[in-house]
Specification:
heterodimer, A: four-stranded antiparallel beta sheet, B: mainly beta, six-stranded mixed beta sheet, five-stranded antiparallel beta sheet, 11 strands
Chain lengths: 113, 111
């Protein structure tokens, strides 16, 4: 158990809809990273928040957004969903730098029908 | 573009054999190289990492070697056991940014 929690575990929705994925980092970690894992693209970094502020941005679509709240939990919002958004979404928690160990949560499996 | 190449994509070994997974990276400024293990239905778990100031690091049956000149690093697992079966990912920091992951290697250890 990494100490990182993610909800929900599974999410099934329709194209055009909007969903919110939630992540709580390990106690003491100030960073939350979001990743998308799909069969064709592998594990892709989306965005990092550190202590409530956006710190780094990766291949995140404009339809996707995230935020980190004062209690350090984070939410990833996915809107106008397309079939291709079906994937596993992981959050990881860690320190300020990417060179600090990242601890991954169990993931949310999103299926868009 | 900046990327991390990982080989092989699948690897089958007999219990007790050694397994080697190799990765190459494109950014000569990269200085941190972690390896993650992902079991079915779970998130990736860090198993070992190496920084650019050392050439090799070992932790029990797992070792990682780094060749900065050639821009490649490898994961070595000795005396493999069935519970080593999983997908292994290498990663590197590219462009002073965040972790870029290889495509993964599915390791199958047969009893």
């Amino acid at each position: 158990d990494s100490g990182v929690t993610q909800t929900p575990k599974h999410l099934i929705t329709a194209t055009g809809q909007r969903v919110t994925l939630r992540c709580s980092p390990r106690s003491g970690d100030l960073s939350v990273y979001w990743y998308q894992q799909s069969l064709d693209q592998g594990l892709q970094f989306l965005i990092q928040y550190y202590n409530g502020e956006e710190r780094a941005k990766g291949n995140i679509l404009e339809r996707f957004s995230a935020q980190q709240f004062p209690d350090l939990h984070s939410e990833l919002n996915l809107s106008s969903l397309e079939l291709g958004d079906s994937a596993l979404y992981f959050c990881a928690s860690g320190g300020y730098d990417s060179t600090d160990t990242q601890y991954f949560g169990p993931g949310t499996r999103l299926t868009v029908l | 573009g900046e990327n991390v190449e990982q080989h092989p994509s699948t690897l089958s070994v007999q219990e007790g054999d050694s397994a080697v997974i190799k990765c190459t990276y494109s950014d000569s400024a990269s200085n941190y190289f972690p390896w993650y293990k992902q079991e079915l239905g779970k998130g990736p778990q860090l198993i070992i990492d190496i920084r650019s100031n050392v050439g090799e690091k070992k932790d029990q049956r797992i070792a990682v070697t780094l060749n900065k000149t050639a821009k490649h690093f490898s994961l070595h697992i000795t005396e493999t056991q069935p519970e080593d079966s999983a997908v292994y990912f290498c990663a590197a920091i590219l462009g002073y940014s965040t972790l870029t992951f290889g495509k993964g290697t599915m390791l199958l250890v047969s009893p």
